[in-house]
C-alpha cells in the first residue's frame, strides 16, 4: 500500500515538473514576427500620390469672407484661366505655391486704363507675378528677404523683393511697395496672403502707371483666418 502511494506521489511530482518546464520555456519564447508579406503590404494612400497631397480649392478660400473681399483678383484669375493652374501647382507638385492677393480696394486704386490696356498675355503675367512657385509660411519670409530678387511664377522677367522687419513683410515690384496685411490661408500646399497694393512690375510698365494713394485707413486690419 505504501509502495503504491509512493509511486503515485512520484508520478504526480513528475507531472507538475513537466508542466512547469513547459510554461517556463513558453515565457522566454520571443514574440512571433508578422509574416513578411503582411509587413510590406501597402494601402491605397501609401506612398501618397500627387492627388492625395491636398484638395486646396482656391475659389472657395478666396470667398471665405464673402464675395467682395477678393472679387477683383479672383475675377482676373478666372478670366485668364489661372485658377486651375494655381491649384495644379499647389496639389500636383512638391513645392506647392504662395499667392499674394491684393484686396479690392488695392485694385480700385489703380486707374482703370492701366489694367484694361494690357493684353490677355500681359494680364496673365501680372496675375502670375502675384505668386511664388513654392509654399512659404510667414516666418519663411525672413530668410527669403536675404537672397535678393525673388523670381515669381511668371518667370525670370518678373521678380519681387521681399523685406522682413520684426514680422512685417513687404513685397516690392518696380512701381509698388505692397505690405502683407493678413494671412488668408497658410496651410500647405497653398499659402495665400493679403496685400494692400497691386504689384506693378517693370516688365509690364516701363513708366510709373497712375495709381491713387492708399492710406493706412484703407487697409484692412491684419488677421489670420485659417
UniProtKB/TrEMBL annotation:
<dbReference type="GO" id="GO:0005886">
    <property type="term" value="C:plasma membrane"/>
</dbReference>
<dbReference type="Pfam" id="PF02469">
    <property type="entry name" value="Fasciclin"/>
</dbReference>
<keyword id="KW-0732">Signal</keyword>
<keyword id="KW-0325">Glycoprotein</keyword>
<protein>
    <recommendedName>
        <fullName>FAS1 domain-containing protein</fullName>
    </recommendedName>
</protein>
<keyword id="KW-0449">Lipoprotein</keyword>
<dbReference type="InterPro" id="IPR045003">
    <property type="entry name" value="FLA_A"/>
</dbReference>
<feature type="signal peptide">
    <location>
        <begin position="1"/>
        <end position="27"/>
    </location>
</feature>
<keyword id="KW-0336">GPI-anchor</keyword>
<dbReference type="GO" id="GO:0009834">
    <property type="term" value="P:plant-type secondary cell wall biogenesis"/>
</dbReference>
<keyword id="KW-1003">Cell membrane</keyword>
<dbReference type="InterPro" id="IPR000782">
    <property type="entry name" value="FAS1_domain"/>
</dbReference>
<dbReference type="GO" id="GO:0098552">
    <property type="term" value="C:side of membrane"/>
</dbReference>
<keyword id="KW-0472">Membrane</keyword>
<feature type="domain" description="FAS1">
    <location>
        <begin position="57"/>
        <end position="199"/>
    </location>
</feature>
<comment type="similarity">
    <text>Belongs to the fasciclin-like AGP family.</text>
</comment>
<comment type="function">
    <text>May be a cell surface adhesion protein.</text>
</comment>
<dbReference type="InterPro" id="IPR036378">
    <property type="entry name" value="FAS1_dom_sf"/>
</dbReference>
Amino acid at each position: 500500500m505504501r509502495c503504491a502511494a509512493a509511486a503515485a506521489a512520484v508520478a504526480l511530482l513528475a507531472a507538475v515538473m513537466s508542466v512547469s518546464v513547459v510554461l517556463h520555456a513558453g515565457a522566454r519564447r520571443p514574440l512571433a514576427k508578422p509574416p513578411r508579406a503582411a509587413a510590406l503590404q501597402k494601402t491605397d494612400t501609401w506612398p501618397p500620390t500627387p492627388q492625395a497631397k491636398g484638395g486646396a480649392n482656391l475659389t472657395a478660400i478666396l470667398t471665405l469672407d464673402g464675395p467682395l473681399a477678393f472679387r477683383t483678383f479672383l475675377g482676373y484669375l478666372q478670366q485668364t484661366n489661372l485658377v486651375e493652374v494655381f491649384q495644379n501647382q499647389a496639389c500636383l507638385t512638391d513645392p506647392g505655391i504662395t499667392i499674394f492677393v491684393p484686396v479690392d480696394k488695392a485694385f480700385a486704386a489703380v486707374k482703370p486704363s492701366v489694367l484694361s490696356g494690357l493684353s490677355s498675355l500681359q494680364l496673365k503675367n501680372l496675375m502670375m507675378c502675384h505668386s511664388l512657385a513654392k509654399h512659404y509660411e510667414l516666418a519663411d519670409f525672413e530668410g527669403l528677404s536675404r537672397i535678393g530678387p525673388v523670381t515669381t511664377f511668371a518667370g525670370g522677367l518678373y521678380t519681387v523683393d521681399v523685406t522682413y522687419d520684426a514680422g512685417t513683410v513687404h513685397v516690392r515690384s518696380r512701381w509698388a511697395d505692397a505690405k502683407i496685411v493678413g494671412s488668408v490661408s497658410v496651410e500647405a500646399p497653398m499659402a495665400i496672403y493679403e496685400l494692400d497694393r497691386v504689384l506693378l512690375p517693370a516688365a509690364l510698365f516701363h513708366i510709373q502707371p497712375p495709381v491713387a494713394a492708399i492710406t493706412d485707413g484703407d487697409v484692412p486690419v491684419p488677421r489670420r483666418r485659417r
